[in-house]
Every structure is written in C-alpha cells, then in structure tokens.
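Render this sequence as a predicted structure.
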Amino acid sequence: MEIDPAEKEELLDALRQANERIAAAPTTGAIATAVDASFKSVTGPAFSMDVALGLAEPSFQSIVRAMRILLTSTAMANFDPSSNGLGLNNILYVSILIEYFNRRLAQQKSAGQIILFEEPEAHLHPQLQLTLFKALSVLPFQSILTTHSTHITANAGLASYVVLTQRGTPAIASSVPARDAQLEPAEIRDLERYLDATRSNLLFARKVMLVEGPAELFLIPPLLKKVKSIDLEREGISVIPIYGVHFDVYAKLFSADALPKKCAIITDGDLTPSDANPSIEGEDVLPAPLDLAGLENDFVRVFACKTTFERALTFKGTLEMFARAADDIGAPTVAERVRDGRTALAGAEDADAQEAILGPLRKAVLNTAKRFGKARFAQIASRHVDAATAIPKYIVDATSWLAAP
C-alpha cells in the first residue's frame, strides 16, 4: 500500500512514545542495569558497550515487521494464523496475493499479470474448493491451475481444460478436449452438464469403462474383484456411468488427438435406456439406435451383451447373490423362486433344459429390480458378491482389453 508520509510519521511517533514508556518502567531499567553490568564484567573495558532495553528501533519497517494477522472465529478472538488449518491459511495467503495483484493493476504498475496455482485444492474442504475456484474465475487477470480435484473440474468450462495424459512413455500427452475432440457446441454443453464431481473422474483415470447406469457401477467392480481377482482401482480403471446410451458424445473424447487413453463401452444389446419405455405411444418417432461399431477406434472398444445387464448377469453363478438381494429388499417370494431354480439347474442335463429354467428367472430378477428400483437392487446385490462364482464374458473381455498394455 502507498501510505502517506504524514501517516507514517504519526505511526512512528506512537512507536517512539511506546518505547520511551517501556524503557522508563522500573523493571525494564533494573533488568537493563543488571545485563549491562554482567556484559561489562565479561568483556572488560576494552570491548564493552552500553546495554539498554527497548521494543524496536523507531522505523516504519520495524512497525511492518511487528505486524501480525489476527483472526477471529466463533470459538476464538484475535488468534494467530498458526492456530489455523493449513488449507485456510493457504486461502489467506491467496487472498493477500490477489489483493496485491489488484493494487498493482489499479496503479498501472504491470502490463499484464498471471497467477499460477499448483493444486489449490490442497487441504481444502470441497465447498471451499468451489468458492476459491469461482473467486479465481472472476479475477481481472489470468489464472492457470493444475489440479486433481474433480470438484474443480466439475465447475470449470470444458473449453478451459488442458488435459495431460500419461501414456506410459517419458512424454506426456496434452490436449484441449473441447477443440481437439472436434465437438459440436451442443455436445460441449452436454458434456459440461455431465462432468460433475463424480463423472469428471474420467479426465483423471488412466483407463475408462463407460457404462449405462448405477446398476453396472455398483456390481461390476466387486464382481470382478470376487470372481476374477481383478481390482479395477489398482489397474487404473475407472467405471463411469453416463445414465443413458448416448455413448457417441463421450466416445469422441478418446482418440489420439484428444484423450489418448483406452475407453471400453459396456452396454446392453437393445441400446434402450433403463428408464425408457419404447412401447408408450408418442407423437414423434424414436431415433435409430447408435451405430456402435462406428464408435470404435484405436482407443475405443464396444462390448455389448445380447439383452440387458440384469438378464445377462442372471445365470447359475449369480443366482444365490440375487436371492440374498431379494431377501434383503423385501421380496421373499422371488428369493425362494430363485433358489428353487438354482436347485433345478443342478439336475438339468443339457443347455436347452438349463435355458428353460433360466429364462423365467431372468425375467423375475429384472422385474424385481424394476419394481424396487434398479439402482437400489444393484446396490443391495453388491453386498452379496461373496456368493457369486461367475461374471458375464463380455465384461471380462472388456476388462482384459483395458488392462492390456
């Protein structure tokens, strides 16, 4: 701050008066006399100097050095920042830095200013991360941040992303997805609505498994871990639900020019959203299903079952898991029916006989999931993956492709 010389002199005069009063105090004088005598007895007359006590030299810099920031909260008043958390103190420092930049701008002391932040989310509460990011977004100068925070990326415009991707080589790939993925404006808006704090994890994942909804999200990771001993997190694979079947928008992100990382799309054979009912009559014709094969490239592969995820997952190795889930969710009749079918399968000798038993069971499991909510049913079933002994091949194939170098 530019402080008027008259005000500086007024502050200095206050310091001088304080020094004089403290130096004149009897205790201060007694201590000074004692230290002076001891010093002279040690040094001898050839090296001695007079000793006195005072607060500080009467200069403006000494006032500045003595200043301390004091904070007040509902718990304490006028406490030192050292009593604070590191994250909030970082915010305090950033606030002072921003004020310093604003003053330089107002005084026209800089042709241009830029702030570089390395991981501003460190030690910060998620809501405070958003507050900080929004404050940086409206500054009259440029800010560049490096971040691993999905809370920040969820609130940043897609056009502001520069994504760095580890490719297993010394060189790190970089891209601006909004430009390099050749997205249309409507697609950019779609992605910006989609990339919330959970799903923007696809920006940070080494490899991505895109699925339709929460049922796959809840069940695929624990089933792979139980049945195939594959830990998706250790493999660097993130399961991301898109809550629909509009995979084309997201598939564009994964390419040599945009995000050069593997993306496996796991979808139902009917390509119908789980909350859609095509049998309902309407005024408009439903659009044609996606051309899944057209989405594939060196970084994108599609793995589809023939029917729906719930039906594909209902076979001998998962029946007890679903029976326990039916018990927990309040469908004991279905649970008993599934267990009876499991017993009947043990005596079925050929594939046709087994399919005759499994067909009605698949329908029963799917109807139960729809009745109680697919997400809720899958969440409960995930508690009982210890009872599963098998997982559909198309899911295993997708995982193997992702895990391969």
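Summary. The chain has a mean pLDDT of 89. Strands lie at 114-118, 142-146, 163-166, 172-175, 207-211, 237-241, 263-267, 300-304.
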